[in-house]
Design a protein that fits this description.
Blueprint: H1 3-6, H2 13-17, H3 20-25, H4 30-40, E1 47-50, H5 57-60, H6 83-91, H7 98-106, H8 120-127, H9 131-141, H10 154-163, H11 172-178, H12 180-184, H13 188-195, H14 199-209, E2 232-237, E3 240-245, E4 252-255, H15 257-264, H16 269-306, H17 308-311, H18 323-330, H19 334-341, E5 345-348, E6 351-354, H20 372-386, H21 392-401, H22 408-424
Parallel strand pairs: 2-5
Antiparallel strand pairs: 1-4, 2-3, 5-6
Helix pairs in contact: 7-9, 8-9, 10-11, 18-19
């Protein structure tokens, strides 16, 4: 391991949740961080930007190769993970029952946030199934990753994440369940009067809520691009592993200390009140950037260790890995780990892939004795046997004979992945 990884000490859950500035930048990639800096420091007279790359990230995106490293071919992965495939592959780990079939049928009913905005009775009518099966299916569906998926609304989304998080503060679930309206209105006085909680206790819980996702689907939301900017880079040199943050994709912040000293020397009270917050914010931002990088390295380290054989090209598919596995190792909540992973890309060899692609269980065999890879292999066999003209419905029917329910959209997506692999191979 590189020295950078060896000496790393992960931040605690409390250190992350008590730093609102860190939470603001945690889910930003290099491009987004650039725009964030430019907006936040626009009126700061003491900050200068140093762009290591000649062009801004927005211009780099139009180029095939980054100027910083001509040896890396920035290509999007041929078979990117999607929310739909990730959910389907988790569902297929259950044994075949009407409940599992209902869970598969529920996926297309998710809205763009990852919510399932139907009561179980409504869903039962839409799927033409028994209401009790619909209720059981929703309950199991809400145990899938990403946490909060399948929630009816924002309140239930936050409650699901809080309930499944061993790091959630005392009373966090209770307040969501009983005082959601007051929380939205920031009516903390009412909550204090009715619960005997102190303002400090309520504020701590509110700070925790800020770490939760309001859109469970966001982990797999990404703009389709030919090129991906690598936020973190893996280098394999024999048995040695090195993980580096690619700082060249966002500007370095430079504080003009000489100018600040000149202003400070004027001994003007109003001037001091103006300049001091600018310096303090700069120092807070630097500290938050360092914390963001530490967390990103820590998460990447766990992913690399889990997927090393795949990254080396020795395995054909990623090792089963879930966000909860990473969260457990880092002793952080799943919502914080999701923030670290979202929008970030890993460069390895000549490839660049979203970190979310390594949150994958395609190879895991479920209780039915099948994995998602088995299902894809079956689809490929059908296409090979009957030719490219075989319809999606024919594939669905043949899978149904094996008691596997699958949607047209998933068949279409798997077919595209198969064709891409064949073209690449």
């Amino acid at each position: 391991m590189s020295e950078e990884v060896k000496i790393f000490r992960s931040l605690t859950q409390e250190e992350v949740t008590q730093n609102p500035l860190l939470l603001e930048i945690l889910d930003l990639n290099g491009e987004q961080l650039t725009y964030y800096f430019e907006e936040k420091f626009l009126d700061n007279p003491f900050i200068e930007f140093e762009y290591p790359i000649e062009h801004k990230v927005s211009q780099i995106l139009q180029e095939r190769r980054p100027a910083a490293d001509p040896d890396i071919d920035i290509q999007s992965p041929s078979s990117p993970q999607t929310l739909e495939t990730f959910l389907f592959e988790q569902i297929m780990l259950y044994r075949q029952t009407p409940i599992r079939d209902a869970m598969v049928q529920m996926v297309p009913f998710l809205d763009e946030r990852g919510y399932l905005p139907y009561k179980y009775g409504e869903l039962a009518k839409k799927l033409q199934i028994d209401p009790m099966i619909a209720l059981d299916a929703i309950t199991l569906f809400q145990q899938l990753e990403p946490t909060g998926i399948g929630a009816y609304d924002l309140k239930e989304c936050l409650m699901l994440q809080t309930d499944q998080d061993q790091h959630s503060p005392n009373h966090a679930y209770f307040l969501l369940e009983n005082y959601f309206a007051e929380l939205l209105e920031e009516d903390y006085a009412e909550i204090m009067e009715r619960t005997n909680l102190t303002l400090a206790e309520i504020q701590q819980i509110v700070n925790y809520y800020h770490t939760l996702r309001t859109r469970p689907s966001s982990l797999y939301e990404r703009i389709e691009r030919i090129n991906l900017i690598p936020d973190v880079e893996l280098q394999l040199m024999g048995e040695e592993i090195q993980i580096h943050i690619n700082r060249q994709y966002y500007p370095r912040l430079i504080f003009d200390q000489d100018y600040y000293d000149e202003m400070e020397a004027k001994n003007n009270t109003e001037l001091q009140e103006y300049i001091q917050p600018h310096k303090e914010f700069y120092q807070q931002m630097l500290s938050s950037i360092r914390s963001r990088e530490k967390l990103l390295i820590a998460v990447t380290k766990i992913i690399v260790q889990s997927q090393l054989q795949y990254l080396k090209g020795e395995d054909k598919s990623p090792t089963p890995l879930l966000i909860k596995d990473i969260a457990h190792q880092l002793r952080l909540s799943e919502s914080i780990v999701s923030r670290i992973i979202i929008n970030k890309n890993l460069a390895y060899g000549e490839n660049v892939s979203p970190l979310s692609d390594f949150i994958n269980i395609s190879a895991k065999v479920g209780r039915s004795g099948l994995s998602a890879l088995n299902i894809q292999a079956f689809i490929q066999d059908v296409i090979t046997k009957h030719g490219q003209d075989v319809s999606d419905q024919e594939i669905i029917d043949q899978l149904a004979d094996k008691k596997i329910i699958i949607s047209h959209r998933l068949v279409e997506r798997y077919r595209q992945n198969i064709l891409k692999k064949q073209a690449k191979g």
